[in-house]
Amino acid sequence: MAVVYQHIREDTGLPFYVGIGKHHYRSTRKWGRNPYWNNIVKNFGYYVEILYDNISYENALDIEKLLIKKYGRKDNGTGILANMTDGGEGNCNPSNSQRKKISSALKGVVKSKEHKANLSIARKGFKPSEEVKKKLSESQKKRCELQSEIERRKNMAKGEKNSNCKLTEKDVKWIRKNYIPKSKIFGQIALSEKYGVTRLTISRIINNKNWKVT
């Protein structure tokens, strides 16, 4: 039995690779992919969509060929897929000429008119399913959350650096000497309010004996 899967670009929601495997793990495996596949994943990200599951291997080969023909291949200028063969033969190693075509494509070779036309057709003909739309939305949400977290940490670090200017070495010694965990008077919150610094600053003063005022 086998599965047929496709890899979807996170930036456009378009498929960029079609494959088959005897097990699901093949669809998530990253090693052994070609340069064009690696370039897309590195720059735009991707997710996996299982199209057919628990079907005969012969049927999987036929479906793979049909899908590759539908979307076309990047390396021979017929479409948008990173596949380097027409499918239907299982795993194979690309020829040197195919590798050179992929390498040239990654260096920014101008697309042929035929290639541009096929790319336009493929984009217009692709209608993402509700599941694909959901995954794309979730991916974008995660990127936004990650960016927000990065900005938050930058602001915290900036705030801590500015707050350090308010402390003296004498203050630091006093904080270390009088700090009492969870105390309403000598706890982290109370001390941060007392000296006008962040709780992170108080925590680092207490836990890092080498911490110094900057």
Which labels suit this protein?
3-stranded antiparallel sheet, mainly alpha, 2 domains, 214 residues, 9 helices, 3 strands
Verbal overview:
It contains nine helices and three strands; from the N terminus they run ββααβααααααα. With about 210 residues, the protein is mainly alpha-helical. α8 (about 190-195) packs across α9. The protein has a three-stranded antiparallel β-sheet with strand order 2-1-3. It folds into two domains: about 1-125, no CATH class; about 135-205. It is rod-shaped. The protein has helices at about 25-30, 35-45, 55-70, 95-105, 115-125, 130-165, 170-180, 190-195, 200-205, and strands spanning about 1-10, 15-20, 45-55.
Figure out the total of helices.
9
Q: Could you say how many structural domains there are in total? A: 2
**In angstroms, what separates the terminal alpha carbons?**
64 Å
- Number of E-state strands: 3
**What's the Cα radius of gyration?**
27 Å
Strand numbers in spatial order across the main sheet: 2-1-3
Q: Portion of residues in helices?
A: 40-55%
Shape: rod-shaped
Structural class estimated from helices and strands = mainly alpha
Question: Mean of the pLDDT scores?
Answer: 76
How does the major sheet shape up? 3 strands, antiparallel
**Strand percentage:** 5-15%
Succession of helices and strands? EEHHEHHHHHHH
* Quaternary organisation of the protein chains: single chain
Provide the low-confidence segments as ranges.
90-94, 108-112
